[in-house]
Write a structure and sequence with these properties.
Elements (H helix, E strand, L loop, with lengths): L8 E8 L4 E8 L5 E7 L7 H5 L8
Antiparallel strand pairs: 1-2, 2-3
Length: 60
């Protein structure tokens, strides 16, 4: 919710943030306010999972 006009804000974009975080930008279509919030990223729900499930094998 927009802290100014109390209308619903929409997610405008997701950008990489500091290591382990992503920055989400929300925009209010009523008053044009922009809010940026950092969210922690779960490494098991990102592209890192594909790397972990890849071709890496223990030495034989």
């Amino acid at each position: 919710m927009c802290p100014v006009c109390k209308h619903r804000m929409g997610l405008a974009r997701i950008s990489p943030g500091k290591r382990g975080f992503e920055e989400r930008t929300f925009e209010c279509s009523t008053c044009q306010r922009i809010e940026k919030i950092s969210f922690a990223v779960d490494p098991l729900k990102t592209d890192a999972l594909g790397w972990a499930a890849g071709e890496l094998k223990p030495p034989s």
